[in-house]
Specification:
There is one protein chain. The chain has a five-stranded mixed β-sheet with strand order 2-9-8-4-6, with no helix packed on it. It has helices at 3-47, 236-241, and strands at 70-72, 76-82, 87-96, 102-109, 113-114, 122-123, 128-136, 142-152, 159-168, 172-175, 178-181, 193-197, 205-210, 215-216, 227-230, 233-234, 244-251, 258-265, 269-272, 276-281, 287-295, 303-308, 313-320, 324-331, 342-351, 356-365. The N and C termini lie far apart (129 Å). Strand 23 (313-320) and strand 24 form a beta hairpin. The protein is mostly beta strands. The radius of gyration is 42 Å and the shape is flat. It folds into three domains: 70-168, Immunoglobulins (Immunoglobulin-like), CATH 2.60.40.10; 172-265, Immunoglobulins (Immunoglobulin-like), CATH 2.60.40; 269-365, Immunoglobulin-like (Sandwich), CATH 2.60.40.
Length: 370
């Protein structure tokens, strides 16, 4: 190989190395520039509260609350269907999820719940306990909800509330469950009452009672059957005094001792409004009111008189319509007695051959300017 050719080869190799070095250096600078730009973009997004695809999400562990913290696994217990007057137990499991010692100072249930004392009342952080609750179901069919309260030194939940739900299902069904009675219909419009066992158990009726002896029933306490039909006899005069009430029927069914039938009845006549309220009253400055006397059974109304005890209320006029009377009344506030700020009177409307309707009136004098 000649010397000229050797020098030419060396120079070519050196030139190639120089070009390659320059190209590599450019790629590095470009990469650094791109990385710098990406960092600026990420920082900009983070400053605005935005997320970037290059961000790595790291979940922070939730801090353990300082002090005691009572945490229940469940705060509601549903017994589902239960029998009347039955006792039912359930457990509420809790944990001290805080950092301090949990101290339970008291437990309290509503009228149908009994909360026994806990085995212990101090719980270390992370320690669990069980609260046992006894639920005494009501005697009558229907949905029921009761509450239990747990008092502790948890600063954020010092009175924890638990809920107990159940549906009391009687094995003896009553039809109808409610009677709609009338003061003008024969026998108060009462329907027969049917008691039927749905679990094929036979039983006898032992006793029947109602408020004010509104109802009387003929029944044989020695009759044992799955079905009983009662024919109520209504004392209408007693019904006038007890328009709303309940018939209690005691039986000796294995799982049901008492069933009930509610009843309701409209008054024969009623006033609207049922009471008169006068506000910002000024002595001797009369105020007018319109009063309606309504017949709930569309009877003819024959007014005997309409007067008040003290004469504060005076009826100016009265007008009869199909099933009601319309009265225009005037209320004149009397002179104040000392520092009293109120006055009172009662309007008595007497209906011929019927009950008397009393409408109380209560007035409040206008406050004195200071």
């Amino acid at each position: 190989m000649s010397g000229k050719f050797y020098r030419f080869l060396v120079l070519s190799v050196m030139s190639a190395l120089i070009v390659l070095s320059v190209l590599c250096q450019g790629d590095v600078l470009a990469a650094k520039s791109k990385d710098k730009g990406n960092k600026k973009t990420i920082l900009s997004k983070r400053a605005k509260g935005e997320k970037d695809v290059n961000d790595v999400v790291v979940k922070k562990a939730e801090p353990v609350p300082a002090g005691a913290m009572i945490k229940f696994k469940e705060v509601v217990h549903d017994f589902g269907n239960v029998t009347p007057d039955s006792l039912n137990d359930c457990n509420f499991i809790f944990t001290n999820a805080g950092t301090g010692i949990l101290e339970i100072t008291n437990t309290k249930g509503t009228c149908k719940c009994t909360v026994p004392d806990l085995q212990k009342k101090r719980y270390e952080p992370g320690e669990s306990g069980t609260l046992k609750v006894s639920f005494h179901a009501p005697k009558f069919q229907g949905a029921t909800t009761q509450n239990v309260f747990v008092f502790s030194n948890d600063p954020n939940n010092a009175k924890a509330e638990l809920e107990i739900k159940a549906f009391v299902r009687s094995q003896v069904q009553v039809e109808p469950e409610k009677l709609s009675l009338s003061l003008v219909a024969a026998n108060g419009g009462a329907k027969d009452i049917t008691l039927k066992s749905i679990d094929n158990e036979s039983y006898a009726i032992t006793k029947i009672t109602s408020q004010g002896d509104v109802f009387k029933f003929d029944f044989d306490p020695n009759k044992v059957s799955q079905t009983h039909i009662l024919k109520p006899k209504v004392n209408v005069e007693n019904l006038k005094r007890f328009l709303i009430g309940t018939v209690l029927i005691e039986i000796n069914h294995p799982t049901c001792r008492t069933v009930k039938v509610d009843y309701v009845c409209m008054r024969e006549f009623e006033a609207s409004p049922s009471a008169i309220i006068v506000r910002d009253a000024v002595v001797k400055e009369a105020q007018k009111r319109t009063i309606y006397l309504i017949s709930n059974y569309n009877e003819k109304i024959d007014i005997e008189s309409a007067v008040s005890d003290k004469g504060i209320i005076k009826v100016l006029s009265q007008k009869e319509t199909k099933n009601r009377f319309e009265f225009e009344a005037e209320i004149t506030p009397p002179a104040r007695e000392g520092k009293l700020r109120v006055f009172a009177d009662t309007l008595h409307i007497k209906i011929k051959g019927k009950e008397q309707i009393d409408i109380p009136c209560r007035g409040f004098y206008k406050a004195d300017k200071q």
